[in-house]
Write a structure and sequence with these properties.
The chain is α+β, with helices and mostly antiparallel strands. It folds into 2 domains: 5-69, Orthogonal Bundle (Arc Repressor Mutant, subunit A); 80-221, Chorismate lyase, CATH 3.40.1410.10. The protein has 7 helices and 10 strands. The protein has helices at 5-18, 31-38, 42-54, 83-89, 108-114, 161-168, 185-191, and strands at 58-61, 65-68, 73-74, 78-79, 94-105, 121-131, 134-143, 173-181, 199-207, 212-221. The strands form 3 sheets. The protein has a 6-stranded antiparallel β-sheet. Strands 1-2 form a two-stranded antiparallel ribbon. Helix 1 packs across helix 3 (42-54). The radius of gyration is 21 Å and the shape is elongated.
């Protein structure tokens, strides 16, 4: 079946974004340029741009043009924020304690999820983030060394892993799961809660076009953390 004209325009732009042809904030080709390049109508080009904007890959500014969006914006329904930014935007103070930061040997299960060789190196950190001194999140994270070779040299008391990885290894795709469950004994100890206290647990995996980047387990005391959203038909 022939590819629809708008889909050809969309695929060309998306491929260029994935290859870094237009970095975040760069001005994209105008509608007129795309009409001429693909010999299609302006309506066809507009549809391709609208769909890419809805996926969080473009930002369109009235009277100024179309720009490449920040790479960490994944679709209009998912935005991964730096926890430090999230806490301080609410008028609170963020602090962090690094309990673990080392190179380990990847187990077969972990190697499969991060695209590594079983027995090969993997970076592992475990950090407790606090809001106004109160533990808010236990972050247990594995990182593909090929994606962020300098990861273990970062002071994660002054910059969060999320912020660092968004800078050095911007992702193209993310998968995540959310569940309400009890923490492990170690997580309960680090968060200062009971082992039966319900927690909000988010497991998130990100990757770029070539390889997985990181796998993180984020555990939050249920009484201190909520997920908020909005919907307009």
């Amino acid at each position: 079946m022939p590819t629809a004209p708008y889909a050809r325009v969309k695929a060309w732009l998306k491929d260029g974004l994935s290859r870094g042809r237009w970095p975040a904030g760069a001005l994209m080709p105008s509608e007129a340029e795309l009409v001429e390049r693909f010999d299609v109508s302006r309506m066809t080009v507009n549809r391709a741009l609208r769909e890419l904007q809805a996926e969080g890959l473009l930002v369109r500014r009235q009277g100024k043009g179309t720009f490449a969006a920040e790479r960490h914006r994944v679709a209009s329904r998912l935005s991964i924020r730096d926890l430090h930014e999230e806490i301080e935007s609410g008028g609170h103070a963020h602090s962090a304690t690094v309990h673990l930061a080392r190179e380990e040997t990847a187990t077969p299960a972990l190697a499969e999820r991060l695209g590594l060789q079983p027995g090969g190196p993997v970076f592992h950190t475990r950090i407790v983030h606090r809001r106004d001194g109160q533990p808010l999140q236990c972050e247990d994270r594995y990182v593909n060394p090929a994606a962020a070779p300098g990861y273990l040299g970062v002071d994660f008391t002054t910059i969060t892993p999320t912020h660092y990885l968004l800078e050095v290894a911007p992702f193209w795709e993310a998968q995540y799961s959310i569940e309400a469950a009890a923490p492990t004994p170690e997580e309960a100890r680090l968060l200062g809660i009971g082992v039966r206290e319900p927690c909000l647990i988010v497991v998130r995996r990100t990757e770029d076009r070539q390889r997985p980047i990181t796998l993180a387990r984020l555990v939050h005391p249920g009484g201190l953390y909520t997920i908020e959203g909005s919907f307009k038909p």
